[in-house]
Amino acid sequence: MIDQSHASARPGSPPPRGGSGGAGTPPARLPVGHGTGRFLVLAGVFVCAACGLVYELELVAVAAYLAGDSVTQTSVVLSVMVFAMGVGSLVAKRLRRHAAAGFGAIETLLALVGGCSAMALYAVFAWTGDRGGVWADGPRCLLVVFSLVIGLLIGAEVPLLMELIQRIRRQDAGRAVADLFAADYVGALAGGLAFPFLLLPFLGQLTGALLTGAVNTVVGAALVLGLFRRDLSRRARRLLRAANTAVLAVLALTAVCVDDFERAARHAVYGADVRVALQTGVQEVVLTGGTDGRPLKLFLDGRLRISGRDERRYHEALVHPAMTGPHRRVLILGGGDGLAAREVLRHPDVRRVDVVERDPEIARLARRDPALAALGGHAYRDPRLRLATADVFDRLRRVPPAAYDVIVCDLPGPAATAGAKPYSQEFYGLARRALAPGGRLVVHAGPVSARPRAFWTVEATLRAAGLRTAPYRAAAPGGPARAPRDRGSPRDRGFVLAARTTPALRLDPRGPRPETLTQAALTEQARAVGRTRVPGLPPSTLVHPRY
Fold this sequence. Notes:
Elements: H1 4-7, H2 34-67, H3 70-92, H4 99-128, H5 137-168, H6 173-227, H7 234-256, H8 258-270, E1 274-279, E2 284-288, E3 297-300, E4 303-307, H9 311-319, E5 329-334, H10 339-345, E6 352-357, H11 360-368, H12 370-375, E7 385-389, H13 392-397, E8 404-410, H14 425-434, E9 435-446, H15 452-464, E10 468-475, E11 492-499, H16 519-530
Parallel strand pairs: 5-6, 5-8, 6-7, 8-9
Antiparallel strand pairs: 1-2, 2-3, 3-4, 9-11, 10-11
Helix pairs in contact: 2-3, 2-4, 2-5, 2-6, 3-5, 4-5, 4-6, 4-7, 4-8, 6-7, 9-10
Function: Catalyzes the irreversible transfer of a propylamine group from the amino donor S-adenosylmethioninamine (decarboxy-AdoMet) to putrescine (1,4-diaminobutane) to yield spermidine.
Keywords: Cell membrane, Membrane, Polyamine biosynthesis, Spermidine biosynthesis, Transferase, Transmembrane, Transmembrane helix
GO molecular function, one term: spermidine synthase activity
């Protein structure tokens, strides 16, 4: 009995019945041996799979950075891309008789679309996005379009690559699929590791995507024009060569202009007075103003974190109600900018302040940037302050029981996925354990008027952790409707004061007097918050975030 796979490997022999190649499709005429050719195709599969996954991760990263809510953005990108890959596989069946030319055209288009996708999304966000940081319909639609197109092209790769492999040497379909998928999955692993550990930290999102597109172009062109050139007509070779040269030129020219583009887009998003812009290992940090009388603003991942116009109102409301009572030992979770520490250190009875900040660049800026350091009252010069760079959840797990009189959670606010972790019942249980008898915990719980359900979920989660609560807020004079209109600045900010026994919401009459907060205003704002209560909300946990 003759093995069909070996028999059909001879040049000029007809394909076996039931083979995965098209009936009557001649074997490939290769410039190298069949074994070498097959290895080169699988190497191409490896590289193309790595590039495809990088495009996917780029879309997820850019979308999560610009739009927030990484779970939603990841779900949209992955679901649309997987659906499109299935459609692409079906469409590619029509190209099997022209597998080499079809694969070359697909890789050229994929390199162009995938390589430029991050820049296009950022451009649309910068020049048409909502001034409050929430995506307008244009960027949302563009994210779906890119996910759909890239998914279609990636899905079309597999049937064509299978056809090319089978044309080199016919073999059992199961073995061919196993070899193809093995190269594909290992390539995906390489791309998945290269993106966070190489491309993102060393090149950034935009340049990393452009370089990936260039690699995709070169490998796709080399595979088709080098290995399968005899399967293409002279005209097809010229067209493919010209298309790949044009794509490489576009990607190279775009890469040269990346820095200028980033500056222009950054000015469109943040204004013309950007002084510091850096990508740390944690987030993008942008600092504007702070000179020539312009208010200082700190943006983290595109969202306004500090505004010199109203930061004192926020930090005084966050800190001073919690300092009524014992406050010799204070823990600040977040707050690497030093502004919460400034308010804590105004109390002379404080003996030690521990600040836990996950991004060391924020603390470095708070020390070295003249405007930010001055705004923070040069808190880092005070010998009572000690800084630890760590994840706040992990650090709180290592805090011994009853270690602190006051814990201040100066965090961005509850959000989906990673942002929900320090607003979970488990986190507040650890904080409760770390509080000394009579100690207090204060939590920034986000805007009340814009997200009342999230605010009251924080309060319900604190109560579920065994703490009694006193919710309140800080708003602009005249109420939330007259709050500052800085881009991304909420109309009001909500807080929850918590303790083992019901905490009295008052200012320490013996402590320093806040500039923007009075006892009457604090009482009135607490009453106003009470009128927004959303009853019956379940607590948020690590395994079931509810924000």
